[in-house]
Amino acid sequence: MFYIFSLDFSLILVKNLTYIPGGMNSIGEACNDLKKEYDACFNAWFSEHFLKGNTNDSMCAPLFKVYQQCVKKAMKDQKIDLQEVNKVILGTENEKQPPKVS
C-alpha cells in the first residue's frame, strides 16, 4: 500500500508507511485545526479519488495553501530556517557517516 505525505510542501509517495489515526499536531499550535481540516480533506481525496486513478489533487489545494502559510509562520516564529529544512543532506558528503571500524 502507498501513502502520500508532505515534507517540503510537495507530495511524495511512500510504500509501507504506518498510518497513525488522529496523526500528530502541527508544528504550530495555531495550525492544529487547519491541519485537521487538511488531513480530513486529504484522506477523503486519497481514498475516494487517488486510489481510483484520479490524481487531480486540486480538491484540497485551497486548504493546503492556508495550512502551508500557517506552518511557515510558525516556523518563522520558532526561528526555524526554511532554507535549512529544505537543504539536501542525504547522499551527500554532509550526511552524517557512521564511525569507521578499525
UniProtKB/TrEMBL annotation:
Protein keywords: Disulfide bond
Which reaction is the catalytic activity of this chain?
Answer: a 1,2-diacyl-sn-glycero-3-phosphate(in) = a 1,2-diacyl-sn-glycero-3-phosphate(out)
InterPro entries on file: MDM35_apoptosis
Q: Name one GO molecular function term.
A: phosphatidic acid transfer activity
* A Gene Ontology cellular-component term: mitochondrial intermembrane space
Q: Which GO terms describe its biological process?
A: phospholipid translocation
Which Pfam families does the entry link to? UPF0203
UniProt similarity note: Belongs to the TRIAP1/MDM35 family.
Annotated protein name in UniProt: TP53-regulated inhibitor of apoptosis 1
Organism equals: Acanthoscelides obtectus (Bean weevil)
